[in-house]
Amino acid sequence: MNYFLNFVNSGDHFSYVLSSYLIVFSIIFLIFILSNSKTKKLEKEFVNLIKNEEKK
Amino acid sequence: MIFSLANPLRFQRLIEKIEPITLNIAIILLLIGLFFCFFGSPPDYLQGETVRIMYIHVPCAWFSLMIYSIIALCSIFSIVFKHTLADLISRSCAPIGACFTLATLLSGSIWGKPTWGTWWVWDARLTSELVLLVIYLGLIIINNAYEDKSKADRYSSILAIIGIINLPIIKWSVDWWSTLHQPASISKFSSPSIDSSMLLPLFIMTFSFLFFFISILLVRVRGEIIQRKIEVIRFNRMVS
Amino acid sequence: MFTYLPHKDSLKDYLTVEENLLNWLELIGSKIQKEKFFNHLKFFKLNDLRNNLIGNLSQGQRKKVSLTKLLLTKCNLWILDEPFNSLDVDSIKKTKKMICSHKANGGSVILASHINLNIEGSKRMFIKSPKQKISNKIANFDTWDNIK
Amino acid sequence: MNLDFFKLVKREIKIMLKNFSIIYSFSTFFVVASLIFVFSVNDISYVKVFYKSIVWIVLIFSIMLVSENFLNEDFNDGSLKELQFLGFSEESIMVSKSIAMWIMIMIPMLFLMPLVFIFFQITLYELKGLVINLFLATPSLTLISILSSLFSVQLKRNKIIQFVIILPFFIPMIIFTTSTGTLFESHNLKENQFLILIGIFFITLPVCLIAGRLIMREINK
What is the pLDDT of residue D181? Predict the structure, then answer.
C-alpha cells in the first residue's frame, strides 16, 4: 500500500503510467468485444440458414 | 493427438469447453497482476515510477512476436499439408497480433516520453516493431482482398513466410545496433539483476495476457468455422 | 512432346503476327523454313495480315493466329482449351479438318469445347461439377450432416 | 524439348524492346517526379542534401509501377500459363523477367544520371557512389517488385494492395542505399556498406524465388 501512496503522491509520472494502462487495456478489450460481436452475428446467421434449410 | 483435432468440427467442440475457462483465468490473473503492479512493487531506482509501464509493455511485445511466429508456423503447415485449420488459426491470429503490436508501440512511446524525452526515436528495434505492425496490416488486407477464401489464405501464408525475416531483426536488434541510439532500456532485462519483486508482476501480467490471447483466438476461430459452414451451405444451395 | 493452347490466346498486342509466331517457335526451340511458314499461314488466310499488329486484329483472327501454332510444330499431342470460341463456321470446319488430318497422321488431341464435333473414333466425356468435391475444397467438412 | 534459360531471357528482352513506350514513360516519370520534389523543397541547398533520398524514393515507386506492367500483361494474355505449361520452371520465369526489367531500368538510368548530376548539383564523387549503389541495389529491388506484382496479379480491384504489402520489405534497401554515400565519403566503412548491399541481394534472391514459385503455382489453380 505504501508503494501505491508514494506513487500517487509523487505525481511526476502518474498520468503517463495511467494513460498507457488505459490505452493498452482499451485496445485489448476492443479486439475482444469486436471479435465476440462478429462471432455472435455469424452464429445468428447460421441458425437462420439452418432453419430455412429445414423448412424446405 | 494434434491430428485428431485437425477436424474443424472436433476442434469446435473443444473450443466450446475451453473458452469460458480461459476468460475467467485471464480476468482473475489480471486483477492479481494489477494489484502487484501498483501496490506490490517498488519504483525503479533509475526510472522511477515509469517502470510500471514495463509490466504491460513487455508482455505485449513478447506476444506481438509470439503471435507472428504462430502465424508463420501455421502458414508453413498450411502450405505443406494444405490444412484448413492452420488457415483458420493464422487468419484469426492476424488482427490480434496487430492489436498487441499497436499496444506495444503506444505504451512504449508513452514510456519513452518521460525517460528519453521524445515520443519516438528511429531506433532499430522501434523501427522493426513498426514494420511488424505494417506486415500484420498487410496480412489483414490480403485476407479480406480476395473473393476466394482459400486463395487469400494461401497468399497471406506466403507473405507471412516472407515476413519471418523480420523476427530475428526485432529480437536481436538491440544487440546488433546497440551503440547507435539506444540508451539502456530493454537490454537491461537480459541481465539477471532484475529484482524478484518486479519480476513477479511482470510474469503474472504475461500469463494473464496469454489467457486473454487464447480466449480471443478461440472466439475468432469459432467465428471463422461458422463462416466457412455458412459458405458451404450457400454453395450447396447454389449448386442444387 | 505436346502443344498447349490456353483459353486466352497468348499473343502480345504490340507485336505483329509474324513476330508473335516466330517468337513462340524460338521459345519452344524449333526452326522452320520461310517457305513452309508462309504456306502454313495461308491455311487460315492470314498471309495478308502477316505484318499487322495483333492488337488491330479481331477476336476471330486472333484465334486463327493461335491455331496456326499447331501447324508450325510437329507434335503428337495437342491440348486445346475451347479452340472454337469466336470462330466463324467456315474456320470451324477448317479446324475440324486440321484435327482429322492430325489424327490420320497418328497424333492425338485432347480438347474441351461446347460444340459437338462428331469426329469418328473420338471419345466424349461430359463433366458435371461434382458437388461434394467442390464443397470439400471450400472447407474441410466431411459430409452435409456434419455441418449441422 | 530443348529448354533453355537464355531463350526465355531473349524472349523477354525482345518483347520489352518492342514495347518501347514503357522505357520512355519510365524515364519521363523519373524526371517529372524528381522535378516535383525539387519544386516542393524550394531551396537548392536542401535539395543538395536530400538528393539521395529523392532519387531512391522516385526510383522505388517507378520500379513498382513498371513491374505491374511486366507481369500483368503476361498473366492477362495467358502467356504466363503457357510458359509454365511448356516446362519452364517458375524460378527461371521470375529470374528472366527480373533480368529484362533490370536492363530496362538500367539503360534509361545511365542516361538520366548526368541529369541528376546537373539537377541536384552534386559532385562527381557523389555521383560515382550513386551509380555503384544503383548497380548493386536494383537487382534486389526488381526481384522484390516482381514478387509484389505477383501478389496483385489476380486482384480485380484495389491494386494498391501490392504497394501496402511489399513496401515494408524495401525499408532495409532504402536504409543501406541512402546511408552508403555518407559512409562512402569517410572512406572508413565503404567496402562494408557495399558488401551489405550484395548480402541483401543474396538474401532476397532465394526468398523471392521460393515465394514466387509458391504464388505462381497458386495462380493457375
Answer: 45
